[in-house]
Amino acid sequence: MTAPVDPLATSSVNGSSASSSQFALPAATNQPVPLIDVGRQNGALAGELDAALRRVIEHGGYVLGPEVKTLEDDIAAYCGVEHAIGCASGSDALLLALMAADVGEGDEVLVPSYTFFATASAVMRVGARPVFVDIDPLTFNIDPAELERLTSERTRAIIPVHLFGQAAAMDEILDFAVTHELTVIEDAAQALGAEFRGQRVGSIGDIACFSFYPTKNLGGVGDGGMVTTRHTRLAERLRMLRVHGERTRYYHEVVGINSRLDTLQAAALCVKLPYLDRWSDERGARAARYQELFSKAGLDRVLGLPQAAAERRHVWNQYIVRVLDGRRDALRQHLGDRQIGTQIYYPRPLHLQECFASLGYVEGSLPLTERAAMETVALPIFPELTDEEQRRVVAEIAAFFAS
Question: Is residue 151 included in any domain, yes or no?
Answer without folding.
Answer: yes
